[in-house]
Amino acid sequence: MPIPDDDWFEISDDMWLDPRFKRKKLKLFADAQIPQTVIAEIAKKIPIDSFSSAKRRTSDPSVLTHAHGKGFVLLTLDQDFWNDRKYPLHSLNGGIIYIAEPPDRPDQIIRAFSLVYVCFARSYPLDWWKRVKVKATVAEFEIKMRSWQGKVARYRIKVRGDRVVARELEC
Question: How far, CA to CA in Å, does 163 sit from each of 60, 79, 116, 118, 159?
């Protein structure tokens, strides 16, 4: 079903974040599915870590525990992390960015991540990533988070022309 244009609203950093606010910047931990070329490209601008090749067979729960234990947001291509039955929001001690693009398309992975970074993650304080999930494609991304009232809030975000627009989704 098409989404009516009036359901979308423009967003920007200055709507929700005081410029004087001191925040920790984004730090990432890439799981084993993220190609080395993608890690190298992201590392040019953002702190990113990953397991050595010897540890790349670590279980998903252990990867998540490691990333969050170090205060990093997990960057993954594994759709299991988007699944709230396996990884419910209320149990997360940090954030997850799931890129829903094929592992053999590093250019698309970088574009999808860049969309999230430019429109959201570069300004969103690292301290606030607890209980936040992002699912990104090259065209748009969705955010699931716990609201200040403890409820789940979901937003779809995309670029329309030179504006960033969002739409709140039903939970």
Answer: 36, 28, 14, 12, 6
Place of tokens 């009036």: 6
**pLDDT at 62 > cutoff 60:** yes
What is d(CA 115, CA 98) in angstroms, rounded to the nearest whole number?
13
Q: For the ranges 66-75, 121-130, 158-167, which has the lowest average pLDDT?
A: 121-130
Residue 10 lies in a domain: no
pLDDT greater than 60 at residue 134: yes
- 29 in a domain, yes or no? yes
**Structural domain contains residue 55:** yes
**Which residue, 144, 145, 143, 170, is CA-closest to 157?**
143
CA–CA gap between residue 108 and residue 148 (Å, rounded): 33
Which of 30-39, 104-113, 120-129 is predicted with the least confidence, judged by mean pLDDT? 120-129
Domain presence at residue 140: yes
Phi/psi zone of residue 40: left (φ > 0), alpha (ψ -120 to 50 degrees), beta? alpha
